[in-house]
Amino acid sequence: MSILSASLARVKPSPTIAVTTRAAELKAGGRDIIGLGAGEPDFDTPQNIKAAAIAAINAGKTKYTPVDGIPELKTAICTKFARENHLTYTPKQVSVGTGGKQVLYNAFMATLNPGDEVIIPAPYWVSYPDMVLLAGGTPVIVTAKIDTAFKITPEQLEAAITPKTKWFLFNSPSNPTGAGYSWDELKALTEVLMRHPHVWVMTDDMYEHLVFDDFKFCTPAEVEPGLYDQTLTVNGVSKAYAMTGWRIGYAAGPIELITAMRKVQSQSTSNPCSISQHAAVAALNGPQDYLATNRALFQRRRDLVVAGLNACKGISCPVPEGAFYVYPDISGCIGKTSAGGTRITDDEAFATALLDETGVAVVFGAAFGLSPNFRVSYATSDEALTEACARIQSFCAGLA
Ligand SMILES: Cc1ncc(COP(=O)(O)O)c(C=O)c1O
Questions:
Q1: Residue 342 burial by CB count (10 A; 0-12/13-18/19+): exposed, middle or buried?
Q2: What is the pTM of this model?
Q3: What's the 224 CA to ligand 1 centre distance in angstroms?
Q4: Residue 393 structural domain
Q5: Contact partners, residue 191, CB within 8 Å, separation at least 6
Q6: CB of 121 shorter than 6 A to ligand 1
Q7: Is 206 close to ligand 1, i.e. is its CB under 6 Å away?
Q8: What are 191-200's pLDDT values in tens digits?
Q9: Over the stretch 129-174, which tens digit does the pLDDT of each residue have?
Q10: Hey, which of 16, 98, 106, 206 would you mutate to test ligand 1's pocket, going by the most ligand atoms within 8 Å of its Cβ?
Q11: Total number of domains in the chain
């Protein structure tokens, strides 16, 4: 009999972490590697946030805290939701966890029974289906192709809903495509949801602040207040404030759900790091001007990468509305053979040959549920991006 559980056998390790680890190993071995796999800003946490953490340490804020967050942070989160999303929540409706990842996981653990279905638009963040599986639920994948700009249609959502649907998991701007739903596009989805009151909405708004051009971020309970009582709005400080290592994410929703999520967390990790919580208060309550600076920086990099990839033979790269990812289509490369002799049978073969032959690390599309594509994270320097695009161009030019 295996020591490992049956539920673990249903999930796979995170492919994005696997790519990042492999690229780091090759680099440690002396190879010239450009990593475009990691999903985190390449700049440092702002000074005021670090200072708040140091002050918290010096003030002895180093003990256990309430399981799902200190009151100051819950209040700061309520203020943030009112200020930025026009959503009214009280601290009792807020849960803070060790990253958005734990918050999402708690929500699934707290709500899913065997057979419960969770609608997940693809391409999706790699962790969603596996989290659902670990919690005993059934992922129902709805695929959004490049011809609808990687966004699902109301008709697709309607067709995916069954009596067993418990959640619709929504993520805009999206990891891995960067696609962002406009107010009208989201409204069309919420109209479907309003016809199916047994379906709850879990919205992952992690990339809210990384939006470009004149795109305006919006979130389901804001667009359709009628969904407020069945929506869990998830967000965090990782991406907006360059705080990925601090591990603070949060959610707001109905008290019954938030209480259940606290129960899950109380029997697993207890409170998120006390020092990080004080840092997150500073992030949310402090100056917000660097968000605009970062947006401008990422928009410039997006444009650089989209132009660089569209100059590659066999690749077509749409211009996304947000996040720091692009998700080029590589149909024109499939079936060819690389200069190094690898047959490009699928996007995994493409990514492997690209890494081996050029030292550029990207994550293959199959990991996100739509092929043949790959994901580029452009959260790295302009120089690295320019060099990476040049290498991808010459790799593609060498395909025969
Ligand atoms: C869409 C999405 N949701 C949630 C997370 C998790 O963020 P955190 O670092 O807060 O756990 C990520 C991180 O990559 C993400 O891309």
A1: middle
A2: 0.96
A3: 24
A4: 6-44+290-397
A5: 154, 224
A6: no
A7: yes
A8: 999 999 999 9
A9: 999 999 999 999 999 999 999 999 999 999 999 999 999 999 999 9
A10: 206
A11: 2
